[in-house]
User: Which sequence fits this backbone?
């Protein structure tokens, strides 16, 4: 009788451990809560997003692996354990991605950092003297991005013979900088696309959760991407649907 009872206890514990249950949590970083973070269960292939308050709810089993990701954060994996279900609201900490800045300008101002307040304190002055009003050379021209400044510096010279251009072309510096520029622009475009269409990728374009970024880079690599991006949103969505069909077909081949 004791053996039967013990066997029943083992079976009960085993089936309990395999039961899918909800986990409640909050995604945070060093600045506070993280909204719209992606939470993906690698085992069940089910995903969700954190709310504006950073909260999330996802169903999983013991041993499942949850992947937490965000465009501005480093991806983190978490293995579900028994304690995950006990705590009603445990916190997942995501580390912010760090970017190297080539240079920046530090200006003195009396701004509070609150946009509405700062705008209300700015007084219009039609007669304000500025580089643009004085007609100075290059006034009003947008500043070059860091990578564009590097390319400009590497390809210009003082004097009649463009020595820098010749040398940097021969040693591959200009080619390397242009490749870096393409990578930067690709990443910026993909981040913008994901922010704009992340809720359409699965529902409308039938893209699997784990393939979302791969699909967006696939779209960005199309030679007609820039031209399509400049069209109306309706036309661009049709472009994305066409690329999604191609992408899924290639994946299944």
Assistant:
């Amino acid at each position: 009788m004791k053996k039967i009872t013990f066997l029943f206890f083992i079976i009960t514990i085993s089936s309990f451990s395999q039961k899918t249950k909800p986990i409640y949590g909050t995604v945070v970083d060093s600045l506070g809560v993280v909204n719209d973070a992606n939470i993906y269960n690698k085992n069940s292939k089910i995903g969700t997003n954190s709310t504006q308050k950073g909260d999330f709810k996802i169903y999983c089993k013991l041993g499942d692996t949850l992947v937490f990701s965000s465009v501005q954060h480093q991806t983190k994996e978490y293995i579900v354990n028994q304690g995950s279900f006990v705590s009603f609201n445990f916190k997942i900490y995501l580390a912010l991605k760090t970017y190297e800045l080539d240079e920046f300008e530090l200006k003195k101002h009396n701004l509070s950092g609150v946009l509405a307040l700062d705008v209300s304190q700015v007084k219009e002055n039609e007669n304000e003297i500025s580089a643009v009003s004085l007609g100075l050379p290059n006034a009003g021209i947008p500043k070059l991005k860091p990578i564009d400044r590097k390319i400009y510096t590497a390809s210009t010279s003082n004097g009649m013979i463009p020595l820098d251009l010749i040398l940097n072309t021969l040693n591959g510096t200009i080619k390397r900088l242009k490749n870096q520029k393409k990578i930067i622009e690709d990443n910026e475009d993909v981040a913008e696309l994901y922010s704009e269409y992340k809720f359409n990728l699965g529902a409308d374009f039938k893209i699997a959760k784990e393939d979302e970024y791969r699909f967006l880079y696939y779209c960005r690599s199309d030679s007609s991407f820039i031209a399509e991006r400049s069209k109306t949103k309706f036309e661009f969505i049709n472009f994305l649907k066409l690329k999604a069909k191609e992408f899924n077909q290639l994946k299944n081949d």
